[in-house]
Design goal:
With 619 residues, the protein is mainly beta. Among the domains are: 145 residues, Sandwich (Immunoglobulin-like), CATH 2.60.40; 79 residues, no CATH class; 99 residues, Macroglobulin (MG2) domain (Immunoglobulin-like). It is 5% helix and 48% strand. A hairpin with a 5-residue loop joins β46 and β47. It is elongated and about 85 Å long. It starts with a strand and ends with a strand.
């Protein structure tokens, strides 16, 4: 048995603060509605100010009944307006067609249909890759250096912060996922390892050598440090946000933490060395796996165990499949996988999986198992489990070239995760230095993402696409592009909806003061973006003064800087004025490849590093 251990004031702001709040108010909310094909499409952009993280919301309602239109998949893009005028129906359709086609030479200013792949690397780095956009030979969005190799991570429910533990350094790193910058690195206790966020997001829980630390997510301050039994520890939060389950591997116990009081309220035995805990939402019970083969079934509300399941010594992990009825336990020492049915609290199926199975993760239809002594990933169809005594159906695919256990495992985080919006998974192979993309039903991965010579121990997907929170309401967050007027196109394939809005992104005084002034807007008039190598192509631009909006004529030293994407070749060409701010030059590409074309004019302060460049592909 478990034993118990027991009137508002009006604010007065100085003028500069009032002015600042006024700027925020202007950028606070853009709200518009249009109707297309009997569907009312609403767009709300909260905090539309350049460089700031904005919340973008698209709502869909039936025009006649007002009922929400759910279960669809809207896509959206921000694109800099050419003339600050709203797009008509024909222009809106053409804009959507361009972006749906995925032309890398006509990219939107902001794409709301992307996801990032984040790798937690064994060398103490974290890499961020965009898997959809790789022209020019790079997919790298960011690379961050941690104090020491990361052991575990958690993405906050709102998707804005990623928290990573580094046990060797005794630190936790907080990362801004909008800008991919480190916000802070702080102490949370000795040897922080496992980290989980409770469902309501109020606290983030971090296991340490001495127990657990409760971290306030809102401001990353420590609410409490709670001593439990000896570590190492695994953690699980109950869905009702009332309890945290903590395994104490060093003394064979499990602790229950009361979230309301931030105190340990019970501690009791859980096998010789409890190593893993998971929660079944179906039985509303916690299941604790111990290395001696015992699985303790714990009711945190009653603060006592309600069952015990015995298997073979060597258990390392327990995880529940979607729905919470079937728990998968892994025993790499004995090459076994057991399936526990919570309706009877018994092992109903056992599979012999050679090679040391050490990790199991899930999609809606499959369980994926990685093994230490093999590069082959095993798949167990979830539709075929649950029949007591029946042999497990297992299929496989290669998850790289090298065994998953070739390099030391430094993390508890998952190395296989579901890809965003697809029946597919991403597979990290640290020995290969690659992340593989596998689509369900295929015999092998259909692609991979380079991790830039860093060994990916774990992988995570950050979804920046519009996601349905409640019926007919789709939201995401994004960093706003530079100040200006933008056409925002919203598209749904079925039912077919094409709508365009106009959004003004406000200036950010801090950014305006910091960034260099670009004296000219550069309009790309070059007709051919896909050209023939070794043949002459005419480059054409139009320059207008940013302040006066008048054509910039007679710039004697205007020229084009052309660089091959691989850095092997570059050239400067004089631009010939043709009147009305138009400039031309003839370019002959020396070989097939991708070329960047920048316009510069030293006498007018227009540098080649300005972001208004042209991309050409020579074939």
């Amino acid at each position: 048995m478990l034993t118990f251990t027991r009137a508002r004031r009006r604010a007065s702001y100085p003028r500069q603060v009032t002015n600042f709040l006024g700027v925020l108010a202007l950028a606070a909310l853009v709200s518009q509605k249009v109707t297309d094909g009997g569907i009312v499409v609403g767009l709300d952009v909260a905090n539309a100010r350049e460089g700031d993280t904005a919340r973008v919301e698209v709502t869909l309602r039936d025009q006649t009944t007002g009922a929400p239109l759910g279960g669809v998949f809207p896509t959206a893009w921000f694109n800099k307006s050419a003339d600050d005028k709203p797009l008509d129906r024909k222009q809106c359709t053409a804009t959507v067609a361009t972006f749906v086609a995925g032309n890398v030479y006509q990219r939107p200013s902001l794409d709301l249909n992307v996801y990032y792949v984040v790798a937690l690397n064994g060398d103490g780095t974290l890499t961020v890759v965009d898997p959809h956009f790789s022209f020019g030979g790079t997919q790298l969005i960011g690379m961050l250096e941690l104090p020491s190799p990361g052991f575990d991570w958690t993405l906050t429910a709102d998707g804005t912060r990623l928290l990573v533990t580094s046990p060797a350094a005794g630190k936790v790193t907080a990362i801004d996922t909008a800008r991919w910058k480190i916000l802070s690195t702080f102490d949370a206790g000795t040897e922080p390892r496992r980290i989980v966020e409770q469902p309501d997001g109020h606290y983030v829980w971090i296991s340490t050598r001495d127990g657990v630390t409760a971290l306030r997510r809102a401001d990353l301050t420590i609410a409490a440090k709670i001593a439990t039994g000896q570590g190492p520890h695994d953690l699980a939060a109950t869905p009702d946000n009332r309890s945290i389950i903590v395994t104490n591997g060093g003394d064979g116990t499990v602790s229950i933490i009361d979230v309301a009081t931030l105190k340990e309220v019970a501690r009791g035995p859980a096998g010789a060395k409890p190593v893993s805990v998971d929660w079944s939402p179906l039985s509303n019970l916690a299941y604790i796996a111990s290395s001696d083969g015992a699985i303790t079934v714990l009711d945190p509300r009653a603060r006592k165990p309600v069952g015990r399941i015995m298997t073979e010594p060597g258990l390392e992990r327990i995880r529940f499949a979607p729905g919470g009825r079937y728990g998968f336990t892994l025993n790499p020492a004995k090459d076994l996988m057991h399936i526990v049915d919570v309706s009877s609290n018994r092992v109903i199926q056992t599979g012999e999986l050679e090679g040391g199975p050490f990790e199991v993760t899930f999609t809606d239809s499959l369980a994926y198992v990685r093994r230490r002594d093999s590069e082959l990933v095993l798949m167990v169809p979830l539709a075929n489990i649950g029949k007591e005594g029946r042999a497990l159906a297992v299929v496989e695919f290669p998850g790289g070239q090298e065994n998953f256990g070739k390099m030391p495992r430094l993390t508890a985080a998952d190395g296989i995760v579901a890809a965003a919006g697809e029946n597919a998974v991403l597979v990290a192979n640290p020995a290969d230095g690659e992340v593989y993309f596998y689509k369900e039903g295929m015999a092998a991965p259909i692609g991979h993402f380079s991790n830039y010579h860093h060994p990916p121990q774990a992988v995570l997907v950050i979804n920046r696409s519009l996601r349905e929170g409640k019926p007919g309401t789709f939201t995401t967050t994004a960093t706003m592009p530079e100040a200006g007027t933008y056409d925002v196109a919203v598209f749904i394939d079925s039912p077919r909806v094409i709508s365009c809005f106009t959004v003004k992104v406000a200036e950010n005084p801090d950014i305006v003061a910091a960034k260099p002034r670009v004296p000219f807007n550069i309009e790309q008039l070059t007709k051919q973006r896909i050209i023939t190598a070794h043949e002459k192509t005419q480059l054409e631009f139009r320059l207008t003064d940013v302040k006066t909006k008048l054509p910039a004529n007679a710039l004697a030293d205007a020229r084009a800087l052309i660089m091959q994407a691989n850095g092997a070749w570059s050239e400067r060409l004089a631009l010939q004025p043709r009147g009305d701010g138009r400039y031309e030059a003839d370019f002959t590409s020396p070989s097939p490849g991708v070329y960047y074309v920048y316009v510069e004019c030293p006498s007018a302060g227009l540098r080649a590093s300005n972001p208004q460049f042209l991309v050409l592909q020579a074939q």
